[in-house]
């Protein structure tokens, strides 16, 4: 059906719909049929593989299954300097071995690591889009072997193009005035799209001048910090203080982006928090789980700003990655401005790690001065 007009949408929507369905299946722990030219393979989440399904897949695989892991996880397993995805042969789908290689902190490489192919990387991208652990099982199959099975089939190329297509398809689905404490003149604008059809929100504070550099903050959702006031991060402080500053300084736009845990999802964020409680820093914890420094994408954030009429911004951020992403999307960054949170005994190591390991521009002396008791 590729390239043909369908009953439920124009031709360019067909692959998007298929990837949406594949994400749903993958997140539910069901196999997805990946196609790369003549190559076919069943892909499924390593963390969600159940024992009964593993047995059925073992019979189908005939010793040809493999586990796909990210470069970050492979480095943690002892593959030093690794920068590419790799695979482990799985003569049998041993659930204990899969869990060890994909998740255990003490695990080490136990067999040769082979290079991954495009179809393997597509499976990992499905895992990332599904917000599960970035580890996938692939079982090469023939068309005949899976004939009649209720499988979602998706092309590798469609998965690779999915994020950019979603950014291009962003649509405003609702907007309304929402007065906030300290910022009564505020409007919420809801966009659909960006990452897996999750809703994204632009909060327009005051009346920013669109013909000048608009103060903008890209703020990734943080359930623990934004809503519950977690002391492990500075997200809630940055969110509320940015809105207050905009209300007092001629307005601005805060984009509230559904990218919990630096894009890893809430379940993986909690896994990382558990590791941090055992002594690992925030980036080591993410690497143990198979994530690089930052999994977030900001191309759709720039698309939101463009739809709101913004062409140049003053970026309210400590993160050079966000500034680079805004520029790469074709918006002018006229200036940058730091956003300070409040340090405490629970987050000071986290703040230092962001500065030292991810290049965030954080003045720890200025932060500590904010925490000093006032006379």
Structure, described:
- The chain has 375 residues and is of the alpha/beta class.
- The chain folds into two domains: 11-164, DHBP synthase, CATH 3.90.870.10; 170-259 and 296-371, 3-Layer(aba) Sandwich (Rossmann fold).
- Helices cover 38% and strands 21% of the residues.
- It has 14 helices and 14 strands.
- It has helices spanning 14-27, 51-61, 71-76, 95-103, 118-130, 156-168, 223-227, 235-248, 266-277, 282-288, 299-307, 320-328, 348-358, 364-371, and strands at 32-36, 39-45, 65-69, 86-90, 114-115, 135-140, 153-155, 171-177, 186-192, 199-205, 214-220, 252-257, 312-316, 332-337.
- Strands 5-4-3-6-2-1-7 form a seven-stranded mixed β-sheet, sandwiched between helices. The protein has a seven-stranded mixed β-sheet with strand order 8-9-10-12-11-13-14, with helices on both faces.
- Helix 1 crosses helix 6 (156-168), helix 5 packs across helix 6 and helix 6 packs parallel to helix 11.
- It is globular.
- The termini are far apart.
- The model is unreliable at 1-11 (pLDDT under 50).
Count of all domains: 2
Low-confidence runs (pLDDT<50, min 5 residues)? 1-11
Shape: globular
Count of strand segments: 14
Largest sheet: 7 strands, mixed
> Which CATH architecture of the largest domain?
3-Layer(aba) Sandwich
Fourth-level CATH superfamily of the largest domain: GTP cyclohydrolase II
* N-end to C-end Cα span: 72 Å
* Cα-based radius of gyration, to the nearest Å: 22 Å
Summarize the structure.
With 375 residues, the chain is an alpha/beta fold. The protein has 14 helices and 14 strands. Helix 1 crosses helix 6, helix 5 crosses helix 6 and helix 9 packs across helix 10.
